[in-house]
Design a protein that fits this description.
The structure holds 2 protein chains of 2 kinds. Chain A is an alpha/beta fold. Chain A contains 7 helices and 13 strands. Helices cover 27% and strands 25% of the residues of chain A. The longest helix of chain A has 16 residues. In chain A, 39% of the residues are buried. In chain B, helix 3 packs antiparallel against helix 4 and helix 3 crosses helix 7. Chain B is globular, with a radius of gyration of 21 Å. Chain B is an alpha+beta fold. Chains A and B meet through helix 2 and helix 5 of A and helix 1 of B.
Chain lengths: 266, 381
């Protein structure tokens, strides 16, 4: 069975090492390594697991970003994906989620037929969780977000997934083609392989402009974006915590209750 | 001159760093304490192509280069010296001589299995009475019809207890002595008359399997001869030239690991109302450590790069190994000192790193042997 899978991925700053300028409240991006967004790695891993099982599966990773996002696509190829597509054009720069999904949907249309689109739930730099669902809407595809378990049915045309909820999960059966967004509970992403690293350059990475994907230029980029970041700031650190001490648990609990009542919390 | 790593080499560092952090580091202290060979991680290294890095894909390798291999051993050793040497001994001392000296049949029979990690490799040169004086081999190989018959013993063989394929040096013509008298053979673990002897109880690299190999009328087919009769010393010396890049990288990794842990500790530990990292006397120690590590790295990467470009590199790999091993001892000893009493306990990894570092001054040619190699190239042989 030769599945055609599209994985949406974003190159993001590594939030583990990122620092915030205390004066301006903005991210200090200098010297911060760029990485494959974590949830997108889960999306790619699930696609790779399908390819492990059905080796004829073809995985195309699509991204939008500056030219250096090619490095992240190379990493995806070194993990086992077959092909990369990078939409990179000043015309799409500064896009919000609505404009981004217009461009990515256009790129996916250009790629052509597919059975599945996997995206990560959200990116660690924006945390909106909107682009995946918006792409599905714009392409008239059924979608399931927050996928924590995934299984292809015997007919190979439908999929059963577990969708994570705050207090449980839903089991949903969905027909292909469809869009699924992955959460970290779905799997543990593999590393690149050494052979993958040294053969990644032999696989194609297409860099497409806005013209290449035939997207309406009035629907992409900063100008076209209906939302923009008004201000970003770091919340002031909270005051120091209080450690309550006492000889017995009851005594500590009493002190806690007195404290909470004093603050009119209870 | 360009000191920039290629994109592939950068990816190798990133990949092995992640692998080492997630898979190797969490068990490093335990396998050291238990003297347990990490079979589960050797399997994972195989799956990710870490056991055949610098060999072309045509022979089953990962298609990488020597510098990437050096980086991989460095990154593994940064968290676990034992895991680093498992990769190094397998790659440099078993895969490489078959790749460089083997005929087509031998390459086909062994390399794909070794590079993919389906089989693990080891190398046997050292004997109870032939260490640095490698020419004093007492293990003998005699041709008997279509078979070689080996008798003797090897000691201190890395990966000994877990290897499937062994490159073994044996005397085939005692009169010719070192040059021309020794030949190299491929021995498989199930060959009749071959057995594993004592497993050494060591000071460091405790999770690495270091054993004796015993040959009692060990009989192998004639076509297991590696190279020509009498090539053994050349096979061994050329193999060790490359092996030194691996061990130097192991030493570098151990030093870097101890350094990184120490820097973190100094940023957290307070005495006399300030952090250790704010004390100039200690900062100066750290500056020396950092400088030595970087110098070692440059020597190693240079030697690896020369090997990749098929330039004569023996002197440079000896220099790299000598300097990196001494750096590993220097840095790990200072790392323990900078940790104070905590550094002497097993609650912190630096005491393990100090124990692991010492072997890098001894095996695959002691520091004294490296100086002999370097001096010989200075004064001519």
């Amino acid at each position: 069975m030769a599945f055609k899978i599209i994985v949406c991925a974003k190159q993001v700053p590594d939030t583990n090492v990122i620092k915030i300028n205390p004066k301006t409240g903005t991210l200090i991006r200098e010297g911060v390594p760029s990485i494959l967004n974590h949830d997108d790695a889960n999306a790619l891993e699930e696609a790779l697991k399908i390819k492990d099982k059905y080796p004829d599966t073809h995985i195309t990773v699509v991204s939008m970003g500056p030219p250096q996002a090619k490095d992240m696509l190379l990493e995806c190829l070194a993990m086992g994906a077959d092909e990369g597509v990078l939409v990179s054009d000043r015309a799409v720069g500064g896009s919000d989620t609505w404009a981004t999904s217009n461009a990515v949907a256009a790129a996916i249309r250009k790629i052509g037929e597919f059975d599945l689109i996997f995206a990560g739930r959200q990116a660690i730099d924006g945390d909106t969780a909107q682009v995946g669902p918006q792409i599905a809407e714009k392409m008239d595809l059924p979608q399931v977000t927050y996928v924590q378990e995934f299984e292809i049915e015997k007919d190979m045309k439908s999929i059963t997934v577990k969708r994570a909820l705050e207090d449980g999960y839903e089991v949903i059966k969905i027909k292909t083609p469809c869009m699924l967004t992955a959460i970290k509970e779905l799997n543990a992403p593999r590393y690149m392989t050494i052979e993958g690293i040294f053969s990644a350059n032999e696989k194609p990475i297409h860099v497409w402009s806005a013209n290449d994907i035939a997207v309406d230029l009035d629907t992409v980029g900063l100008e076209a974006s209906p939302t923009n970041v008004f201000r970003s700031f770091t919340p002031a650190p909270k005051g120091k915590g209080v450690i309550l001490e006492g000889d017995t648990e009851k005594e500590v609990a009493e002190k806690l209750l007195i404290g909470l009542k004093g603050k009119h919390v209870v | 001159m360009n000191f920039q790593l290629t994109k592939e080499q950068e990816f190798v560092r990133k990949m092995v760093r992640e692998f080492a952090t997630n898979e190797v580091e969490p068990i490093a202290a335990d396998i050291d304490a238990e003297h347990r060979f990490p079979e589960e991680n050797v399997k994972k290294m195989a799956d990710y192509g870490l056991l055949g890095i610098p060999f072309p894909r045509e022979v089953g390798g990962a298609g990488g280069d020597q510098l990437s291999y050096a980086i991989a051993v460095e990154e593994l050793s940064r968290v676990c010296g034992s895991t680093g040497v498992i990769c190094s001994a397998h790659t440099s001392l078993c895969c490489w001589p078959i790749y460089a000296w083997g005929n087509d049949e031998q390459k086909e029979k062994y390399l794909a299995d070794l590079c993919s990690g389906r089989k693990l490799g080891a190398f046997g040169l050292t004997e109870p009475n032939a260490g640095t004086d490698a020419g004093g081999q007492q293990t003998r190989a005699d041709l008997n019809g279509d078979q070689w018959v080996l008798n003797g013993a090897k000691v201190f063989i890395t990966n000994g207890g877990y290897a499937d394929v062994f490159i073994i040096m044996a005397m085939t013509d005692k009169k010719k002595k070192t040059r021309g008298g020794i030949s190299a053979f491929i021995v498989e673990k199930d060959d009749p008359g071959f057995s594993i002897g004592k497993t050494e109880d060591k000071m460091g690299i405790c999770a690495s399997s270091t054993t004796e190999l015993i040959f009692q009328n060990c009989t192998i087919p004639k076509d297991r001869l590696l190279g020509q009769v009498g090539d053994g010393f050349k096979v061994a010396m050329s193999t060790l030239d490359g092996g030194r890049i691996g061990i130097a990288s192991q030493a570098l990794g151990i030093a870097q690991g101890a350094f990184d842990v120490t820097v973190d500790y100094m940023k957290a530990r307070k005495q006399f109302g300030k952090k250790l990292s704010q004390m100039e006397a200690l900062q100066f120690e750290v500056a020396n450590m950092a400088t030595q590590i970087e110098a070692a790295r440059l020597l190693i990467y240079q030697a690896a790069d020369m090997k990749d470009r098929n330039l004569p590199y023996g002197k440079y790999s000896a220099m790299a190994k000598l300097f990196a091993a001494e750096t590993a001892m220097y840095v790990t000893t200072k790392a323990v000192q900078l940790h104070g009493g905590y550094g002497y306990t097993k609650d912190y990894p630096v005491e393990r790193m100090m124990r692991d570092a010492k072997i890098t001054e001894i095996y695959e040619g002691t520091s004294e042997v490296q100086k002999m190699v370097i001096a010989a190239s200075v004064f001519g042989k």
